[in-house]
Design brief:
Structural class: alpha/beta
Number of strands: 15
Radius of gyration: 21 Å
Strand content: 15-25%
Number of helices: 15
Length: 398
Amino acid sequence: MAERYVISGTTVATMADDGYGLIENAAIAIDADRIAWVGPEREVPPDFADSLRHDMSGRLITPALIDCHTHIVHGGNRAREFEMRLNGASYEEIARAGGGIVSTVAATRGASEADLLHSAMPRIDALIAQGVATVEIKSGYGLDQETELKMLRVARALGEVRPIRVVTSFLGAHAVPKGSDADSYIDEICIPALRAAHAEGLVDAVDGFCEGIAFDTAQIARVFDVAQELGLPVKLHAEQLSHLGGTALAAQYKALSVDHVEYATEADAKALAASGTVAVLLPGAFYTIHETQAPPVQAFRNHGVPMAVGTDWNPGSSPLGSLLLAMNMACTLFRLTPAEALAGTTRNAARALGLDDCGVIAPGMRADLTIWNVSDPAELSYGIGINPLHARVFGGVL
């Protein structure tokens, strides 16, 4: 149970400004599930003078990490497609041959809710073990109403059986199921499934995949119109493999985020800045499918577009189960700085999910913290395959 206590003997990266917001020789006062105070240890408020203290022996504390883009509820795996790619097949060729998303759809439709929960729990545990306290989970491997709702119920259940906060995204507009055309699918299956999922309280945001192998801007706009009608925020997979105008469309709808964005332009960056939309970078997919065009990171910097970083953990294009590795890859592949990578998995990741009570260490925020066996925050992006987690605080519980 959460209580009143003080964490002392630490360096704190508050992430409350454009850098790390470092406070050395720091302390954090926790009251139940909230941060009551943070600052130099010598200035701990008098009303916490007699509270229990946990000394961290100089360890670094950051906001708990946030993985703002995952697909961790699904049936089966696509290891065979990994082999096909190594033999020269492209992501698009695999998809058009009946692989890719559609192959996972069959496995997910055939799995029960219990099966999906059982298979997803090791994935959620892996994220928790690296200091993640909030995770976004998408539907999108059902492509029918029954399975889309089943996936979202499992996502909600994960937040009940594990100490992690789950944010759901309805991704019915993920792919066109075999035997259907895109327009009929959007109108006859996707939109009714969205309405049903919303009525059941399963949806926090609405997503889509705007690409040549998925849906065009007009089709996505129809889904977004319904999302607006239902009072739900939107986000979009866009400009991953080509430039179809999805980023500009999402900006028109003031989307929470636009994700992938390898083929985004300077004009897109301006549009995102004007709409307050986050650009979510997903280096796992870039790496896995051997992309060569990196997102326009400097344009995002120039126009003040906040950048988040996610794993995009999915069975095909990004089987990446480490947010720490995603941070390293964002630095090495996309040239983010370690400070930008950490902001991308804390402050900006929270913004990409529409959350305003986490992602920074400040009074009144949720007491979701990660305590690391490092002294310099750059070490979190520097290590490859290294997990320096010491402890995680979730909702004030250490």
